[in-house]
Amino acid sequence: MMPGRRVIIAVWLMLLLAGCIVITRTEFSSDMSVFLPRSPSPAQQVLVDQLHEGVVSRLILLAIEGTPPDTLAALSTAMAGRLRANPAFGIVSNGDDAAFARDRDLLWRYRYLLSPAVVPGHFSVAALHAALQADVQLLTSDMGMVAKQSIPADPTGEMLRLIGAFAGQAHPATRDGVWMSPDRSRALLMVQTAAQGFDLDAQERDLHDIDAAFAAARHAVPADLQQQAARARLIETGPPVFAVQIRAQMKADIEHLSLIATLLVAVILLFAYRSVRMLVLGLLPVLSGVIAGIAGVSLAFGFVHGITLGFGVTLIGEAVDYAIYLLTQTAPGAAPAATLPRIWPTLRLGMLTSVCGFSVMLLSSFIGFAQLGLFTITGLVVALAVTRWVLPALLRRSFTTVTSLVFAAPLLALIRVGGMLRFVVLGLAIAAALALGFHHGPYWDDELSSMSPVPAAEKSLDEQLRREMGAPDVRYLLVVQAPTTEVALETSAQVAGRLEALVAQGAIGGFDAPSTWLPSQAAQRARQAALPDAATLQANLAQAIEDTPFRPDTFAPFLADVAAARREPLLERADLNGSSLGLRLDTLLVQTDGRWLAMLPLRDVVNSNAVADAVSDMHDKQLIFIDLKAESDRLLATYLHEALMLSLAGSIAIVVLLSVSLRSLRRTVAVLLPLAAAVVCTAGLLLSEAGRLSIFNLFGLLLVVAVGSNYCLFFERAVPEAEDLTRRRMIASLVIADLCTVIGFGVLSFSAIPVLHGIGLTVAIGACLSLLFGAIFSARSGDSIWRQGSA
Amino acid sequence: MMRRARMLPTLLVVLGVLGVPGAASADPPAAILQLPQLMTWMHSVHRATATFKEQKFVQMLNQPLQSSGRLIYVAPDELQKETLAPARSALIVEGDHLTVQQPDGKVRQLSLSEFPELGALVESMRATLAGDPATLERFYVPTLTGTAGNWSLQLAPRDPRLRKLLALIRIQGDGTTIRTVETVEDNGDRTVMTITPDLG
Questions:
Q1: Residue A307 lies in a domain
Q2: Which residues of B fall within a CB distance of 8 Å from A177?
Q3: Among candidates A243, A246, A247, which has minimal Cα distance to A59?
Q4: Which helix (H) or strand (E) covers residue A53, if one does?
Q5: How far, CA to CA in Å, does B95 sit from each of A471, B5, B32, B79, B119?
Q6: How far is Cα A667 from Cα A172, in angstroms, rounded to an integer?
Q7: Where are the domains of chain B?
Q8: For residue B63, what is the nearest residue in chain A, using CA coordinates?
Q9: What is residue B29's DSSP assignment?
Q10: Which CATH number fits domain B4-197: 2.50.20.10, 3.60.150.10, 3.30.565.10, 1.10.530.10?
Q11: Residues in chain A within 8 Å Cβ distance of B53
Q12: Helix (H) or strand (E) holding A146
């Protein structure tokens, strides 16, 4: 019975309570962008924003399939009608012409302010004459029937220009009035959510609404189609769909895997201790560590990410070891207080080594990894403190401990032949090192997409739908930064002028610009000024019409519309509200941090150098040319470099810590040699299995160093010769601890989420190898206990 | 249109050999022609070329517009109308894609759906040539009169929106040859296309 036992328990309980209170007030986040950088370059900021809230992040692609085309068309129409009535969806496109009626009206009404062709001289006698002759040609041609509708009010063809730009983006083929795949097996719809891409709760509601709209549409189709409609299936893809699915999968994975890991660890401990009470006691340090970890992250970051919680599983694997060492290495009937002095220095050093390894993660640009680092460090420190002070206070003198030491026998046998196996391990390590050294091709998976948790099948379905739909897959983007909307729009128009030239040259297929749909006030005023007064226009027209076949009174609507355009107020952003033009503008012209960004996405870029050259003199306009793919690859390269540097720093810190603590080069080498062999072999195994290493494997290797060093420390540590039972207890404690670690991380490797899988698999393999190699190498030192033990 | 008239006898023999119902015994030219029969004949033609002359009577103009050029049809859904005079232009339809080469040399890519009037107009020709009664009936109510040697197919648009523009299309032909296509608009404007199949 320790003095002050009650005080210790009381303090511990109060701290636990405080931790729980912090946790109840914690905001839990599942925003994947915490795995994006904290302080990117301007170009990277645009990339991150695009991923976060850009048009692309809000685009849901829908396909209805499984029934004949007429039913598909009816379902598409019914579904789009329902979705359009829902304010959660900004744009709902299914090819239905009626949806763009408002846009057509706007373009028609403001055609003289929107058309870039309206410059002084555009309505001179010569220009009008040329326009009228072109109109005659147009009427003669096959476009005549369409053109005839607008020629009397728009002989200079401003509307045709605008519609051309408006419909410039590729569309899927329309059959039966709605978009369909070329083989008519799918009706296609495109939905843009009003909610931002990162607002996963809203996105989840949106997807639910889409499912409901589909279910309702099935009942809304005409009676004769009902039977076929019942067979229809709805396919959903696009970033919001993926994000919601991933969140759900991650939540499920974390819940299931934590449960499985906890159960497995409990079974092992129960098997070892044969006592529920001991099991509960053994889990107390872990539980305290998890609570402290969550509370610590919450206090430091203001929120806790779901992934961080996922690694609570790994903490179970690591922190449960401390209690195992204490409880297993204490003989039945002995006081744990007697064991502590013997194992405390090793435990403390082991914990410090782990903390060293995890602490470099605090410096990571990924907020997610920084949280993981803090969570693990806090958890480990608290778990060890609870093991050191609280557990002995809770334990009675006569507690049962591990009675079964069956684990020990095989490992001791292994250690007996360790001298031989040592060379095998060295051989393996050298082979692995050679394999790493002579590896063909890149080591690192440098595609951002490989970090994406979206399954390959879903990705290819998404690509297929995108192809069928001609959905924008923006890679190149010109971004103008300006202090005001007016300046942003003026610069946008200037850039657009140069891009027009590139389109004509064939360097790019096309582009979109905010200034096309909302010209700057100055540009609009200039166009207004270029419109002649009624008398001049009438006189010019009368002269221009003379030798054309047009009847003189044909163009009265034209005269009236030009006169109106001269007087009317300029087009304002608010005028576009409620149209798809307005929504398009919302994505092309955005305000961030008091600045305005005009985005000009480019289509079908053939020659990106030509684009860079065309705007090379405009850097003073705060213009950036962004290749989103190159930028995202560069981003990943930065992360990889950072992760490599951090791992290196962590490893060096561990080496320094060990050599300072052990005060012996020989002992340090004895600890590090098996550890290094384990890391090299793990890396070799992973590389040979996957062909490449990911950033998650790299962080996993760092954890192998942090965790594996504990085993190697215990093996290296000499124990008084005679205590054979103590040795057996120690080896048993190591095996149990290692099993728990391997289980904790091993179950993570079954997750389909790359971050969980990558780290889980790496640490599970590494921990196994560390234990094996540590055992084998421990037979090497002349003064080690094992030689005598085996004699 | 085009070489079909000359191919017809051969075609009928082939169809007879293959035992296609309805074509087994060539109908005498004087018999009343049924739409399925015409469609079946049309459907078996894979390629045809011809020249055309077109006259447009438009109210806002005080004289008719004349043009002429060539027509090419390749089954099942490719149709080219190349206008050579008074200015060169072309209209090429492949599936749902419409390519318009304007007299000024500009090329525009359109989807037929974006210009429903144009889409319907194209199908009146293309679906008739392809012998595709389903598509034809989707856009129009077809009425066939006359005999195999001189038939007239009247197409009345189904869509009320289209009816406001297009009152009627009248296609006249002889065997698988189309002779004239007359398009009458609601406001009285009219287009008459006269087709001469290539010889050879």
A1: yes
A2: 113
A3: A243
A4: helix A42-53
A5: 20, 26, 33, 9, 11
A6: 70
A7: 4-197
A8: A549
A9: T
A10: 2.50.20.10
A11: none
A12: helix A144-150
A657-694 residue pLDDT tens:
888 888 888 888 888 888 999 999 999 988 888 777 88
Residue B118 near chain A (CB below 8 Å): yes
| Closest-CA residue to B134 (of B35, B23, B32) | B35
Residues whose CB falls within 8 Å of the CB of residue B22, separated by 6 or more in sequence, listed in order: B36, B37, B40
Q: What residues form DSSP beta bridges with B155?
A: B142, B169
- Name the residue with tokens 């009438």: A538
Q: pLDDT value at position B15?
A: 34
Alpha carbons A503 and A492: distance in angstroms, whole number = 16
List residues in chain A touching B: CB distance below 8 A.
Answer: 95, 97, 134, 136-146, 148-149, 151-152, 164, 167, 171, 173-177, 182, 549-551, 554
Q: How does pLDDT run across A324-343, given as a tens digit for each residue?
A: 888 777 766 667 777 778 78
Name the residue among A318, A306, A315 with its Cα closest to residue A375: A315
Side chain identity, residue A421: L
CATH of the domain at A378: 1.20.1640.10
- Residue A364 pLDDT more than 70? yes
Q: List, in order, residues 6 or more apart from A781 with CB less than 8 Å away.
A: A666, A670, A716
* Residue bearing tokens 């150098």: A609
- pTM metric for this prediction: 0.65
How many helices (H) and strands (E) would you count in chain B?
Answer: 5, 11
Residue B56: which of A139, A164, A171 has the nearest Cβ? A139
Q: List the one residue out of A95, A234, A225 whose CA is nearest residue A167.
A: A95
Q: What is the mean pLDDT of chain A?
A: 81
